[in-house]
Amino acid sequence: DHAEDQKKLVRLFVDWKQECEREIRGEKALACLPPDDVIRLLLETMENAMEAAGGPQGWDMLSPDKRQVHCIEANRQLRITIGEEQFASLSSAEKETVDFFVWAGCCMHKELNAAKGGNTRMRAWWEQNGVDGPVLLMNKDNTAAASGGSSVAKERAVHVSTGGGQKTLDLAGSVFRHKDDKKGQHDSLHYYLEAELGFTSQWPDTSNTRYHSHGDAACEYLVHKSRYLLFLEIILLKKESRTHTNIELNVFR
Description:
The protein has 253 residues and is an all-alpha fold. The protein contains 12 helices and no strands. Helix 2 (35-52) packs across helix 3 and helix 7 (140-148) packs antiparallel against helix 8 (151-160). It is elongated and about 95 Å long.
């Protein structure tokens, strides 16, 4: 579903396209009319313009610039009127061709749905074909429950946890570019990649779920996977505990 303001914008574009087409069609039709017919139509148009301005007395009270504006608009309306008459004489097929308009939209939701659908179908294929999927990337609580809790807690922890590329990229976004700039490795990663690549770079904004962010992040990870894994090792060595957080460990896997 598209935003209402974008739907309105497209309607305005359609109206504008049709109005321009009718005006051009009318202009061409007027150019083919005998001079006497053109003069008659222009006189009628100017009489209507003067009447709309309040009659001859009201017209005389207008400034030259205002009169010019009224004349230009009156002539434009004449061209549109003639264009509408010419358009009405076309066949249905010809009208459809003339007014043909395609709205592709930004395709953001379509691409998002394609990515989500592809991920869902791939995960379903693993289950249908008895193939072990990617390792589960459990959060801290589920990790504790799965390793030392009751059988019910373990089963629940496994059931609610997921893994795979999308989950990894989500977690990587929280580590490398958290939506809260007070969390994560924003500046550290920025300086590290600048030193490694020779130019500034940053992890795509998967923490904020921006459109294209997961696709961009997949490309980024595939190209620079070794650098990101090395970065995770470096931040490990900077800690007194010499341990990864649960989320860092999940990304490192």
